[in-house]
Amino acid sequence: MILPGAIEQTITAMHGEAGRAWLDDLPRRVAGYARRWQLTMMPPFGNLSFNYAAPGLRADGIPVVLKICYPGPEVQTEMAALRIAGGNGMVRLLAKDVAGATMLLQRAVPGDMLIDHPDDEAATQIAAGVMVASWRTAPEDHPFPTVAGWGRGFERMRARFDGGTGPLPADLTGRAERLFADLVASSPAPVVLHGDLHHYNILRDADGWLAIDPKGVAGEPAYEIGALMRNRLPAMADEAAGLEVLVRRLRIVAGVTGLDPERMRQWTVAQALLSAWWTIEDGGDIASTEDVIRTAEILERVTL
């Protein structure tokens, strides 16, 4: 089996010898699931990084994706999010092997990514429609992490940098940290959010557009916009152009979802600095967070 180089590098860097063993076992596992679920498999997708995914056909001719994940808690929350959505706004979960961290998923056909849509306004409307279609009230006994729990990333940042913010801008990060806490404290009843709903995770299907790869997190709907706001941006050194795109997206999503654009703006600012910290926490370089931080800087200065 020929794998894209990125997944081999990522898995071995993150998991060492255990990751190498997982990679080496993939051919056997793919063949086993193909027999179990009666699949005709095709070569894997070329953009793999953290999990194995390949298109295929079921015996009845239905296009599918076989997704074999490296074991971890996010696998079960992804399965749960897909199950609760039930094919509304997200690809359908057709079968699963919880112990094997493996899913058989509906394949979006033709599968064009929203990132390739030429019109940002139309793309934003599409993304907002996917949000509304997929949101479901979080059950009381839900298995998901919470937005409040994700926010404790700021505590890890403080612990790592002896109460400081490391390479992140101290004043902006402090304000984002306090804003995050205030928003959590005033949040309405949670829904099941995708948690990483950006332009690369929304694909065109024959009947519309569907999200893939949900994280699965319980929180207020206004939190969901953050990832969308941080992707496919103009050169953020041009503040006027950046502000125009960001405000337009907020207003479009507000129009489709009925959410408060000001609250979504606040969530975008708070979440941007949390996202920047996650990048640092995972070993990333501060340079890779520049546009994310710039997004927060620009939006912090406006009120909707």
TrEMBL record:
Q: What Enzyme Commission number does this protein have?
A: 2.7.1.72
Q: Name any one GO molecular function.
A: aminoglycoside 6-kinase activity
- Keyword Kinase listed? The answer is yes
Q: Which SUPFAM superfamilies match?
A: Protein kinase-like (PK-like) (SSF56112)
Which Gene3D superfamilies does this one have? 3.90.1200.10
Q: Which GO terms describe its biological process?
A: secondary metabolic process
Q: Which UniProt keywords apply?
A: Kinase, Transferase
Q: What is this protein called?
A: Streptomycin 6-kinase (Streptidine kinase) (Streptomycin 6-phosphotransferase) (APH(6))
Q: Could you read off the lineage of the organism from its UniProt record?
A: Bacteria, Pseudomonadati, Thermomicrobiota, Thermomicrobia, Thermomicrobiales
